[in-house]
């Protein structure tokens, strides 16, 4: 089987699906040869030469598309590119089907199998393949550093001869994987951290990081059996907004991470809240790519609303591209090694398996997930 | 004499025991413990009761000893108890 | 006769049982959870011992009944009526009565015919100890209840002190004289003098000691009354007296030492300094003396403090003691103590040095206070713990114009009631100037690496 | 006569002095700093007691000299020659000889004319206890030196066990019979039978107990030999025997309890389980039983561990126990234990959760290890401490195909020699599945909030 | 006395010599009236209005110059501006005389008193006025955040289902105030931190922050009585470079802070060392403004040398401008309140006082510090 | 009888004392302490020396008692000492 790894065509995404520290696990697979798109390591300071030395071959993107039996990609492929693929080959990567539904259909029509790493089920066994977690984690870290860049004061408290510098107050809304890491990072830097989430179980987790949980009683909320948040009713959102705005008012940095899998992110902070905030304070909207939690947030822009900086950054995890690539490639390789059959040199599409069931969206000309049919 | 030796021995052993018993006492209990020990030292009452009665002088001494020892015993135990009950309320 | 012997055996058995109950009672009194039961147990033991003694009485039952009933009534009344605040003096009073009882017992024994020399010595010892306990306790009572205002230095006090000193050779004389003479004199002329002298001596013993040290003295007197009772037991050949008495004597002694430590004094210091300065003009020894303290003692004081200010400095950073410091803070808070951290702007070696460390150790920002916040109310702080800080608590910065650090605002820990300074030696800090704080009356130096010192205190707390 | 009485008084005085020395000696033996001196002191006490006894001998001096010299020679030789590894069995052997000596003393006393019933009872008691000590110790010696291979279950063992059970009614009979009869029979027919039975009983007492439990048994036998000596003292009206014997008896008992605890057993468990399963086929009770442990006991085990693996999980985060965990780790290292932290990739609730906390607590990165690093050498780990982790140490992830967590690599703490699991209840973790680890033979559950549990262990370490 | 506060003419410096939280202490001075250059608070999100509300008056820069009796300024004044000042007035601020010697002379010629806050002596009593410390401290914090921005991995270690992310290794060279804070900040973020300084006393201080001190035996080094480092001999520098390069090689971030008061910064890292470092690693040269510790570092540029990013940032403290301004204004006010005489409404130039002696460079037409005469 | 009572009392007190003395002993000292206590239990030697000599049987018993007790005493103290000296080396 010939495995090819593609580079992200988006120049803002510096991540690579290959990392020198992890490729050893693929090259060790019996019967597999590997090539990669030249320049794949540019964003993580790894030259083609380095990968060559590890036994991989640099080829052009087009060569990749036409030669690969398994195509590993950090993004979805355009319809145009789909047509260049070998029929019966498999595309594995972050296919983002909610936003690239047409592209998925195109793949399927060309009888190409599509595996979306976003659809790894959240079961214990599959955690090692969970790209959403691994990237959200690093995004949470990057979010705090990014936000503090725009804040005109330091996060920790310092009692000095030149007066006492007050610690920054950081408010994290939405405590999933990214939110937790954001809390941890802000705490580390010495900020006072508060956090809120609609799921009650999260309270204990917030406290387990030494931060404060803001209690807002929204009545019945809850999570799906996969651990994702349910969508809130409009009244609940209104109530939440109201009480949250009080916390925002006293905060220097607000980081919003609220996302609902497969849907646009909920709008949590509206302009009236922003207007109440102190000039100079910073809102970082981690959900900006899926519609944004904050009114007025724009991808890759810093919007100034009444002196408050609303920051929207795409590909946050890519700010720590090296670690992100390491994790990403590990996730992908973990999927691959679990389902690669060394005897046949083929991927073993065993639809009894829960991971295959969830992550394989298109197989042998059939869309396997009814949401994209 | 043999008797005295043995009794002296009992005395010695008791002292050792006393020393060992009170080696780690929380400071909140210092006063009650002192008071409780004080009540025990009213054991002199037993001694007073053993006195022999030979003449008025001896009777007076015995009466005095019994009287004061009794005060010590009754007062001591009751005060200790009051003190300890204060703790419980806290 | 057979019958009597049997009674004696039974009595002795019961005595043993009640002795064991006393032992267990005292043990239980030493733990908070069992203290109340311990007291009951010891009372029960007392009841058994007294009751069984009544099986073979020689004295008129009327005298006994009168004595016990009257004594019981008086004792109970006092115990029930007394205000809780007056308890210490009550304990002193009761203790005095116990001493008086043994005093009288020994007197009575003195009157018995055919005392051996050994018995004579015992009688005299019992009288001496019992008498001092009695009159000493009365004085302690008087001082505590503020009925007696005489302190050291007054002429009356000095007279009694002389009696105390006089009583010692007198005691030796009454003990030795008959031994030399080889016979025991019956009510010799000097006996009554000795009785009086003993009582005077007790007064002289306690009189010069200050009111603050009274609890320790009472504990000591308590121990003495136990010893007197034990001697009386030897005299009367009664084992429960011996056991109960010597238990009280020994545990009382230990307790005295513990209490003296908790007040940061030694017993000899309490007793002896009382005497020493009674003749002189007192209070002239203030500067130049460093008073070290052990972590045990520091713990005892902290345990009783209701407000504590922690002042960390560069030494805390060097010792990397931040984690134990936080732990100590938490334990103090659990103990009901109010804890604050006084952070000086230039403590450590970089701006915010203390903040970095305390944040790492998870000390809440809300507990941190600046000098301006803590200085005004410093005199309400029971204990200020200076952890490896030096320059930032150096009073010469505010007091000595010539000092190189003059003009820097400091954390004025010297105004706290007690100051512990934790450092490894007497060496100076960054600025290289000597720190007069270390020599203050209310300062105790806890030498050693700060992490270890606090670690020890923490360990004590966890026991 | 006068002279003899005087000698007796002096003897008694010396006995008292040496008793006090024994007391102090034992106390000093209990502290590392003074242990050596304590042993000397107790030896000196022994010398005094023996020497003063020699002032009034009845036995032929030749016999005495022969006995002491020969015994001294043998004892010294054994003590000096023995390999250090063989010390436990030597202690057992010596102890057995001590028991034999009291056994013989009592036998000799039995032969004396005019025993009172009370004395008879004492004699029988001393023989019984001394005899069991003797033969029991011999068996213990045999087991420890691996000269004796018979274990529980064998026929021989069962025979001896029957002797042990038989000996009890026999003992009651020999004690009660003369009391009922009202007179003490001289060398009655049954006496020799009783002697033999006693020795058999000792064998039956120790035989079924496993080699691992031997140290506890030896300590118990040691305590018994002390008690036997004390009874002998009562018999001979000798107070130093009484004091020394009962000191050994009591302290031995406490020591036995402590040692049993350290091995995570109760004494009855050691003795009784030995018996109970000796009849049955043994080893069938393995699943479904949870064995809780207290922090005291956990401490004792940790103190003796030479390698410890700490496995933190979400519960450590919830309890915010990271600081105490690091402290415990440091204390263990100070104690010479090798400490590592096994960090599972998904421990906690976010990637790197444990790292954040342990870094905050200043645990060095070098101590952190991944499952791949620790699993291969897990069987060399003495104690794995699982702190609020659950799913990540759940063996069904590797063993039970049906389990929802099947397929996840775990930290295989169940392969360590002992596992402590610190959690508050038996409830399951994030994945909601039951954890068979908790029921394993080598697992002990330390229930309670992790911070508190570890805090207690830390406090024990600091004592 | 009329006090005026100037804005920095350098657009890269966002700091302000006034801060809303501190002005109260000047307005409380009897006999002083205060104006400020309009727009002074732009860099710290404070409007003229805010200062107006606190009782201060916004005027133009020229008005400031011509009206002020005491001119507080974050930078030196140009010769041109000097001429606009009232004779006998006092200029107080960061006059940077080593680099603006001519400007100082110009002031003196106009009989204007010049107080340089850089020359506050390092005595205990004057710590509250020590601008070098207060700014270096914040610069140290900012340096770590800045450097981590250019690093393609996260600083802390994270053991995750997607593999173990290694902690970054940070090496701090020069452990003065800035270096210490850099160490503390990097430690906080979870990096492995090593540090080196020529002064031996520093070892204990480094350890007091939980970091590792790199021992390099240079023979006799030392510090001046003011606590500044002495210049090293060429041999010492060579030896240091050699051993340091080994530590640099294994580091992901190197932060250099070595400065010698009044002289160009020592060159500590040369190109050969940089070439040994891993591609992707980052060197932040905190001394770049005074000549730079690193060969090739350029102010406000990121120079890529063999994949290593050499970062030079001007006005690092200004990255946390709000806190920096708070500290700066406190320092200045502490000087002012110590020497302002409320009876005469004048500054009391008491040359007996050590602080005045050191910090007043020009007084009444005389240069008071022979280095600038 | 009186005598027995008193001696019994001494026994009791000693037991209490023994219990109190060994309440907190570091586990490293368990074995030496056991061994040291074992040596003390050789006090039976004193008892053996007090035996009376009336006939060969008694002599044999006495000899045996003295012999074995001596082994216990000498062996016990020496082994304890060896054990403790090991600690010091560490
Ligand atoms: N914060 C800043 O920005 C900064 C910067 C530079 C200079 N400074 C100066 O540094 C000083 C700070 O004052 P400070 O009170 O924090 O510190 P300090 O005056 O330097 O005193 C620290 C004390 O800690 C003790 N110590 C050191 N190691 C210890 C250990 N392991 N355990 C216990 N004690 C230990 C030392 O005494 P032993 O040796 O006897 O143990 C020393 O006296 C001021 O003079 C300040 O001006 C501050
Ligand atoms: N790391 C990640 O990124 C991530 C993200 C999401 C989910 N997960 C999942 O989380 C789980 C992590 O495993 P884990 O072993 O760390 O945790 P776990 O399986 O959730 O178990 C935690 C245990 O800690 C105990 N506990 C809670 N509070 C405690 C306290 N105060 N003191 C003592 N014990 C306490 C609980 O038992 P008691 O209630 O009886 O005390 C519980 O059984 C895995 O199933 C993983 O898949 C991980
Ligand atoms: N099975 C596994 O082992 C596994 C793996 C990864 C994550 N998880 C769990 O899944 C959960 C979701 O993680 P995620 O990072 O993917 O979440 P996410 O990115 O889907 O959402 C982020 C957070 O935003 C919250 N949120 C949604 N709407 C909100 C609103 N209106 N206001 C405030 N908060 C709102 C959500 O509750 C969630 O916590 C977490 O609890 C995580 O621990 C489990
Ligand atoms: N008196 C006070 O209270 C006070 C106030 C502030 C600072 N200080 C002290 O003054 C000292 C200097 O602080 P600073 O921040 O102003 O220093 P700085 O900015 O002048 O220099 C930074 C550091 O670089 C070091 N350095 C110089 N040449 C070097 C070389 N070739 N290699 C490696 N390191 C080199 C110096 O030793 C210094 O530690 C510190 O110890 C500080 O604590 C004291």
Automatic annotation (TrEMBL), chains B, F:
InterPro entries: NADP_transhyd_a_C (IPR024605). Keywords: Cell inner membrane, Cell membrane, Membrane, NAD, NADP, Translocase, Transmembrane, Transmembrane helix. Residues 9-89 form the NAD(P) transhydrogenase alpha subunit C-terminal domain. One of its GO terms (molecular function) is proton-translocating NAD(P)+ transhydrogenase activity. It is found in: Cell inner membrane. One of its GO terms (biological process) is NADPH regeneration. It is a multi-pass membrane protein. The chain crosses the membrane at residues 6-23, 35-54, 60-80. It catalyses: NAD(+) + NADPH + H(+)(in) = NADH + NADP(+) + H(+)(out). It is an enzyme of class 7 (translocase). The transhydrogenation between NADH and NADP is coupled to respiration and ATP hydrolysis and functions as a proton pump across the membrane. This is proton-translocating NAD(P)(+) transhydrogenase. It comes from SAR86 cluster bacterium. The lineage of its organism: Bacteria, Pseudomonadati, Pseudomonadota, Gammaproteobacteria, SAR86 cluster.
């Amino acid at each position: 089987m010939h495995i090819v790894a593609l580079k992200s065509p988006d120049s803002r995404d510096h991540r690579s699906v290959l990392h020198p520290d992890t490729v050893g696990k693929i090259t060790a697979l019996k019967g597999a040869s590997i090539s990669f798109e030249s320049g794949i390591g540019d964003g993580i300071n790894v030259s083609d030469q380095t990968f060559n030395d590890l036994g991989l071959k640099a080829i052009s993107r087009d060569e990749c598309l036409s030669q690969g039996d398994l195509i590993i990609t950090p993004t979805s492929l355009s319809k145009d590119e789909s047509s260049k693929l070998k029929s019966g080959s498999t595309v594995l990567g972050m296919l983002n089907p909610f936003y690239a539904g047409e592209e998925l259909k195109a793949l399927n029509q060309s009888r190409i199998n599509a595996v979306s790493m976003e659809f790894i089920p959240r079961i214990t066994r599959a955690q090692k393949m969970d790209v959403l977690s691994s990237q959200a984690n690093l995004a949470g870290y990057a979010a705090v550093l990014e936000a503090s860049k725009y804040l005109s004061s330091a996060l920790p408290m310092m009692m000095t001869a030149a007066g006492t510098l007050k610690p920054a107050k950081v408010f994290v809304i939405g405590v999933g994987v990214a939110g937790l890491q954001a809390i941890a990072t802000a705490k580390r830097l010495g900020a006072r951290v508060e956090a809120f989430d609609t799921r009650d179980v999260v309270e204990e987790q917030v406290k387990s990081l030494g931060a404060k949980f803001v209690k807002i009683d929204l009545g019945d909320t809850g999570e799906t059996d996969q651990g994702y948040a349910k969508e809130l009713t409009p009244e609940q959102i209104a109530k939440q907004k109201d009480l949250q705005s009080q916390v925002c008012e006293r905060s220097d940095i607000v980081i919003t991470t609220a996302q609902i899998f497969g849907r646009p992110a909920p709008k949590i902070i509206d302009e009236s809240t922003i207007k109440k905030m102190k000039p100079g304070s910073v809102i970082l909207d981690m959900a900006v790519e899926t519609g944004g939690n904050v009114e007025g947030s724009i991808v890759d822009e810093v919007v100034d609303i009444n002196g408050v900086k609303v920051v929207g950054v795409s590909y946050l995890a890519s700010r720590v591209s090296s670690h992100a690539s390491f994790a990403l490639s590990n996730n992908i390789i973990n999927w691959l090694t679990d389902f690669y059959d060394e005897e046949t040199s083929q991927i073993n599409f065993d639809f009894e398996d829960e991971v295959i069931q969830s992550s394989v969206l298109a197989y042998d000309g059939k869309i396997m997930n009814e949401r994209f049919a | 004499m043999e008797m005295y030796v043995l009794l002296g021995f009992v005395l010695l052993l008791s002292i050792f025991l006393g020393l060992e018993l009170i080696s780690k006492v929380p400071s909140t209990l210092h006063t009650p413990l002192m008071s409780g020990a004080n009540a025990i030292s009213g054991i002199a009452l037993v001694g007073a009761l053993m006195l022999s009665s030979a003449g008025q002088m001896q009777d007076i001494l015995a009466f005095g000893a019994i009287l004061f020892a009794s005060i010590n015993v009754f007062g001591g135990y009751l005060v200790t108890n009051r003190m300890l009950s204060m703790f419980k309320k806290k | 006769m057979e019958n009597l012997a049997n009674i004696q055996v039974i009595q002795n058995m019961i005595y043993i049982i009640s002795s064991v109950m006393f032992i267990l009672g005292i043990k239980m009194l030493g733990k908070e959870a069992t203290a109340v039961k311990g007291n009951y147990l010891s009372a029960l033991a007392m009841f058994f011992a007294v009751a069984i003694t009544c099986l073979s009485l020689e004295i008129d039952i009327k005298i006994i009944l009168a004595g016990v009933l009257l004594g019981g009534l008086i004792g109970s009344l006092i115990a029930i009526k007394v205000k809780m605040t007056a308890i210490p003096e009550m304990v002193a009073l009761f203790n005095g009565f116990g001493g008086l009882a043994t005093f009288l017992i020994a007197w009575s024994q003195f009157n018995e015919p055919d005392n051996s020399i050994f018995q004579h010595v015992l009688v005299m010892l019992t009288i001496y100890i019992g008498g001092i306990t009695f009159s000493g306790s009365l004085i302690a009572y008087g001082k505590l209840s503020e009925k007696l205002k005489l302190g050291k230095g007054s002429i009356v006090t000095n007279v009694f002190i002389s009696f105390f000193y006089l009583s010692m050779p007198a005691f030796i004389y009454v003990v030795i004289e008959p031994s030399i003479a080889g016979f025991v004199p019956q009510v010799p002329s000097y006996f009554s003098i000795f009785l009086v002298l003993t009582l005077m001596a007790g007064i002289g013993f306690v009189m010069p000691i200050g009111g603050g040290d009274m609890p320790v003295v009472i504990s000591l007197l308590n121990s003495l009354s136990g010893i007197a009772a034990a001697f009386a037991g030897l005299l009367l050949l009664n084992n429960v007296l011996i056991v109960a008495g010597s238990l009280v004597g020994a545990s009382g002694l230990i307790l005295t030492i513990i209490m003296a430590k908790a007040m940061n004094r030694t017993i000899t210091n309490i007793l002896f300094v009382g005497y020493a300065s009674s003749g002189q003009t007192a209070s002239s020894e203030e500067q130049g003396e460093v008073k070290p303290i052990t972590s045990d003692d520091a713990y005892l004081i902290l345990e009783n403090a209701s407000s504590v200010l922690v002042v960390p400095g560069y030494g805390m950073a060097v010792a990397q003691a931040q984690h134990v410091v936080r732990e100590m803070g938490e334990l103090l808070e659990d103990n009901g103590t109010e804890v604050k951290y006084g952070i000086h702007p230039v403590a450590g070696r970089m701006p915010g040095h203390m903040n970095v460390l305390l944040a790492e150790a998870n000390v809440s920002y809300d507990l941190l206070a600046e000098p301006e916040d803590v200085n005004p109310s410093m005199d309400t702080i029971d204990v200020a713990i200076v952890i490896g800080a030096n320059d930032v608590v150096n009073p010469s910065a505010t007091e000595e114009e010539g000092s190189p650090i003059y003009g820097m605002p400091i954390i004025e820990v010297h105004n706290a009631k007690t100051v512990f300074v934790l450092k490894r030696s007497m060496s100076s800090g960054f600025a290289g100037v000597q720190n007069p704080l270390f020599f203050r009356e209310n300062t105790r130096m806890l030498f050693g690496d700060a992490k270890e010192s606090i670690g020890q205190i923490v360990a004590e707390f966890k026991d």
